[in-house]
Amino acid sequence: MLCSASCLTCDTTATNCLTCGLSNAGVTLYKNSTTCLAVCPNGLWANSVGNTCDSCTQGCLTCTGAGLTNCLTCDNVTGTPYLKEIGATVCGTTCPDRQFISASYPNECQPCASNCITCSVTADNCTNTNCSVNFYYLNNSCLSQCPSTYYYSDSSLRQCQPCATGCLRCFGPSASECTECDLVLTTQYYLQIGLTTCLPSCNPG
Which of 33, 134, 165, 175 is deepest in the core (most CB within 10 A)? Predict the structure, then answer.
C-alpha cells in the first residue's frame, strides 16, 4: 500500500498518517491526529521535534511553544478570558500595572494613560490611588497639580487631600495651614495678618 503524498509513514489506510515529513513542494508537514498539515490549527503549535502539532497551554489561542510565555494570541477558557500582555508573549487572567482590560479589545491588554500606574475600563480612569511620579490622585484621576481646596500629601502617597473649611489653597489639612481663603456658602473666610489661618472674621486690630 502506498501512503498519501502528505504522509511519511501510514497505517491501515493511505491517509492514516503515523509520521510526517515534507510535502511535494518541500514544505515541512506536522502531524495533527492522523493528518499531516503545513500549518497547525488554533490551539496547537508546530513542534519540529517529531513534526507534530502539539497543544498550546490553556489560555493560548495561538502559540510558538508550550507554556503561557509562548503565546501569540489568547483565548477564553470556560468563560474566563485570557489576556495578552502588551509587548510580551504571555497570556494571563489579569493585566499588569499600566495596562487594563478593555471591552473593545477582547483578549488583549490595553495601555493606561501615562499618569496612571493602574487603570480600569478606560485608559485615564486611574484606580487604587496609584499615580506616576509628579502626579496626584483625586476622584479616579491623576493630576499634575491638586485643584483649589486641596493640597498634595507627601510624595510617597501622591494624593490630593482636602483643605480645612474656609481654605481655598493650603499646604496641609488643618485650618492653620492655609495660604488663601474661600467663600463657603454665604460665609467669607479671611486670612489673618502674619498667620496662615482662615477665619470667618478678622482678629481684633
Answer: 175
